[in-house]
Amino acid sequence: MSFGLAGQFDVRSLPSLRRIINTILILALISLLVLPPASALPRCYTGCASNDVEILGFSLVPSGTCIDATTSADLYMHFKTNRVNTYCVYVVFDIYTDNNQLLEKDVSVVLGNFNTKVDQNLNIYTIDWPCGQSLYVRNIYVQWSQNSPCSYDCSGGTGSKCSRPGNIQVLIPGIEVVKVVNGLCEFGTAFPITVTGPGYSASHAFDCSGGYFIFTNMAPGTYTVTETVPAGWTVSGSPQTVTVYSGTVSAAVVTNTRDTGSLAITKQVEGQCESGTIFPVSIAGPGGYHSSYIFSCSGGTHTFTNLPTGDYTITEIVPEGWTAPGLPQTVTVSKDTTATATVTNIRDTGSLAISKQVIGQCLPGMTFLVTISGPGNYIATHDFDCSGGTYTFTDLPTGTYTITEAVPEGWTAGSLPQTVAVSKDQTATATITNTRNTGRLAITKQVYGYCVPGTQFVVSISGPGGYSDSYAFDCSGGTYLFTDMPTGDYTITETHPAEWEAAFSPETVTIHKDETATATVINTRDSGSLTVTKQVQGECTSDMFEILISGPGGYLASHTFDCSGGSYTFTSLPPGDYTITETVPEGWLALGLPQTVTVSKGETATVTFTNLNTQTECQTAFAGADTEICEGSPLVLEGYAIDATSVSWSIKAGLGTLQWPYDGSDYKAAYTPPHSGESEAVLTFTAQGICPDVSDDVTVYVVSRPIAIITFMPA
Fold first, then answer.
1. How far is CA 158 from CA 143, 147, 630, in A?
2. In 3D, which of 613, 607, 617 has the Cα closest to residue 536?
3. Exposure on the CB side of residue 273, measured as CA atoms within 13 A
4. How many Å separate Cα 639 from the centre of its chain?
5. Average pLDDT for residues 200-210, to the nearest whole number?
6. Does 363 share its domain with 333?
7. 232 and 377 both lie in a single domain
């Protein structure tokens, strides 16, 4: 229990106080269990057959305000006698503090003689009281007698009685003021309570939470409880008179009730109001009071009741597109009266200017119907013609508008539908562009066959409204994209050289909006084929043999063979003569190349040649087979050698003329024997190269020409 300067304890400490008191009581009970035995006390306990003297309690009345460590206090004992002729009443006891500390020991009091049954509250003792502490009376001994004179010893005498109550708390007289607060209470509101009485005055201020407070250090007597009532509140129970008795705490209840009134708000709505539009109106007043009401388009009046008196601020969550002039506003609510206020909402308006742009051919009489729709189911239209222009919609309720258009077939209205916000007293703008629908046509050119550089294939397209265009492809073909074409059907034609044929499908295509149609035009030239057969002689591992064909108009093509040889066919060749050559790997010969063949339309020419490995097949020189020749006649000699870089013919035996080279390209020589009669000539063919020189002989037998024998016959 804590005490203030005026001797009262703070109500805010009551919960803790109760816990402290409970703890003290428990400690006190424990202390009883550990008290010294009766034999150690200067008093006796014999003969206690009855309790004719009953101790009801003890109370403490301080002599002054408890502001020091201790103060003088009078100890009162409340008791009663249960029989007549109770003489020589004698009491002995100990006094303890709430922390189980011994304050006074063996306090003895002679109460006197009582001839009748009595109920007494007597001041029996004066002590130094530790301010704020609770006191307990323990180890109480009571003795009396029906005889006189009195004897206060253990012998007791005839008829003596004794009584030993246990542990009794000492009460401090006071007034418990209970505060009741009804109604909205603003934070910080104070309810000051003052208690005045005989030589006593103390105060305590309650807050909105109410509760109770105990005023202490009071002497028994009559006290007045009063309150300083805050503005806007009504009090009951103040002032009131309370009597304080010794050893008791009296009670007083003070109730405060908030003064209230009413506020009637009238709503007026001006302008087009869309169904479902709401106008939430709020009021805020004393003590943080807040309330609200939602009005609709119909307006009307709503009354807020039981409002704490005072000033109220009226606000509104104004819907978009509306204005609430005069808000916020303040009104005063008085006790038991109804204040009034009017809240008016006015619809905001603006304008919308729509510009029309028409791109593309527009036929006379064609129209573009534009529609706007907005808040409150607002709808308006305007018809534009091919000239376009600007039209302004006025007096529009503010808000969001959707713009749509009845678009003519074959046209597109860009950015539709579109939305635009119309603001108060302003002109919003929007642009609608109508564009003729277009698509694209991608034409792919494929050219098969030899094509002379500079050759052109002119592709033309024609479509709706006399549309026409063309593009010239060259030999490389490829794809060309015609763009911005009005939608519809188009016809494709081509102009090409006479030696070419054109195959394309479809000849007619349909162009759709924002799509790309496709067509393929194929050109094919008259052609034949050439099959080249490769033979590989000698050891071959990873060598590659590239052959090249060249033909009319600079035609060139190639193919690479590997060691396996085989055949390869060149197709789609322009008719004409083709020369076949080979890029011969080092250490190899191409026998039979170069070679020229003729390719005819629709036919396949053939070429066969052999690649010879000079590293493994170069030990051969062949001059040819032995032969016969007439004397004086020329003979063409042919031979071949592997990997020969130079070749020579020589006459080993015999006569004659040997001419070398024969034609400057092949391994040939001409041999003419003289007119010398029959003979035999040995011709030697020698080849020089990377390999060791090799040679081969051929024998030519020369025979005489027949000589005619003329015989003359006689006549």
1. 12, 7, 201
2. 613
3. 20
4. 90
5. 92
6. no
7. no
**Cβ–Cβ < 8 Å for 509, 489:** yes
Q: Indicate the number of domains in the chain.
A: 7
Do residues 269 and 279 lie in contact, with contact meaning Cβ atoms separated by under 8 Å?
Answer: yes
**pTM (two decimals):** 0.39
Reduced to 3 states, what is the DSSP secondary structure of residue 20?
Answer: helix
Q: Which of 347, 372, 407 is the last residue of a domain?
A: 347
The strand pairing partners of 356, in sequence order, are 389, 432
For residue 222, give its domain range. 174-258
- Chain centroid to Cα 40, Å, comes to 85
Same domain, 289 and 334: yes
Domain co-membership, 26 together with 150: yes
Contact status, residue 658 vs residue 669, Cβ threshold 8 Å: yes
Between β-strands 168-171 and 53-62, what pairing exists: parallel, antiparallel or unpaired? parallel
- HSE value, Cβ hemisphere, 13 Å, CA-based, for 207: 7
The last residue of one of the domains, among 296, 313, 347, is 347
pLDDT of residue 596: 95
199/337 same-domain check = no
When pLDDT is cut at 50, 70 and 90, the band that residue 41 belongs to is: very low
* Residue 576 zone, left/alpha/beta (φ > 0; ψ -120 to 50; rest): left
Q: Exposed/middle/buried for 87, CB within 10 Å: 0-12, 13-18, 19+?
A: middle
pLDDT in tens, 103-145: 999 888 888 777 778 888 788 899 888 876 778 898 888 877 6
Between 533 and 153, the more confident residue is 533
Apex CA 691: angle with CA 687 and CA 694, to 5°?
35
- CA 74 – CA 63 distance, rounded (Å): 7
pLDDT > 70 in the chain, percent: 86
158 has pLDDT over 60: no
Q: Which of 8-12, 253-257, 540-544 has the lowest mean pLDDT?
A: 8-12
Contact 464, 497 (CB under 8 A): no
Tokens 């396949």 map to which residue? 604
Whole-angstrom Cα distance, residue 646 to residue 188?
A: 130
Predicted pLDDT of residue 393: 96
Query: Do 482 and 549 share a structural domain?
Result: no
> For residue 463, how many other CB atoms are within 10 A of its CB?
22
How far is it, in rounded angstroms, from Cα 438 to Cα 463? Answer: 12
- Do 271 and 369 lie in one domain? The reply is no
The residues, ordered by sequence, that sit 6+ positions from 261 with a Cβ below 8 Å of its Cβ are: 307, 309, 333, 334, 335, 336, 337, 338, 339
**Per-residue tokens: 7:** 């001797």
Q: What is the pLDDT of residues 679-698, one digit of tens each?
A: 899 999 888 876 678 888 99
Backbone angles phi, psi at 24, to 5 degrees: -65, -40
State the CB neighbour count (10 A cutoff) for residue 502.
15
- Supply φ then ψ for residue 261, to 5 degrees: -145, -160
Is-contact 227 193, C-beta < 8 A? yes
